[in-house]
Amino acid sequence: MTNADEAGHSEPPIAGDETATLLGSLDRQRATLAWKTGGLDAAGLRATLGPSSITLGGLLKHLAFVEDFYFSLKLNGCSPGPPWETVDWDANPGWDWQSAAEDTPEQLYSLWREAVARSRATVAELLTDAGPEQLARGEWPDGQVPSLRRILIDLIEEYARHVGHADLIRESVDGLTGEDPPRGRTDR
To answer: Cβ atoms within 10 A of the Cβ of 183, count?
Structure first.
């Protein structure tokens, strides 16, 4: 459901329905993250900025986890799958961020792309039966059950926050700046 503007940038539809707008907005954030993290070697993906321990590799792994957690577990009620289901999150709640330093760039990019693909497939399948108002099969810790709409909004917010981190880190790595990928490039 990804739209692109005349320059090839991933865009939500200018006057689409609610579902297309939500999915388009999420895909724009995903494409921007892919651009901001793309083409870097291990050192670039491990770089930090100032006192923060956030890395671009950590962002990729964390957002892969967020994709699987929200769309597989919370929305669809399924196991988030490997590697997430084997982690002792109580003993190491920041495992996704910290363990990224041990992964190759190829592993990180692949993990994130595969999580996004699973998320897109799950959402597409669920949208064949109902719209964004449908309730998830999983619940929040307080027992409330969110709608697909709420989950999409939460993911858009999560990506937007982390794309901001990626902007700053990437600029410190190699000077790359900008809001949108160069013409003709929407994803790496």
So the answer is: 10
Element (H, E) at 148: helix 148-174
pLDDT at 188 exceeding the cut of 50: no
**pTM for the full predicted model:** 0.91
Q: Whole-angstrom Cα distance, residue 33 to residue 60?
A: 8
Radius of gyration in angstroms for the set of CA atoms belonging to the chain, rounded to a whole number: 17
Q: Are 149 and 17 in contact (CB under 8 A)?
A: no
Locus of tokens 């699987």 = 68
What pLDDT score was predicted for residue 183? Answer: 60
What is the distance between the terminal CA atoms of the chain, rounded to a whole angstrom? 18
**Range 6-10, long-range pairs (CB < 8 A, 24+ positions):** 7/180, 7/183, 7/184, 8/181, 8/183, 8/184, 8/185, 8/186, 9/180, 9/181, 9/186, 10/186, 10/187
Q: What is the pLDDT of residue 181?
A: 75
The CA distance from 160 to 154, in Å, is 10
When pLDDT is averaged across residues 7-34 and rounded to a whole number, the result is: 87
Instruction: Report in angstroms the alpha-carbon separations of 3 from 28, 71, 99, 106, 123.
Output: 9, 21, 34, 27, 17
What is the distance between the alpha carbons of residues 45 and 56, in angstroms, rounded to a whole number? 5
Rounded Cα–Cα distance for residues 117 and 155 (Å): 15
Q: Can you say how many angstroms the Cα of residue 25 is from the centroid of all Cα atoms in its chain?
A: 12
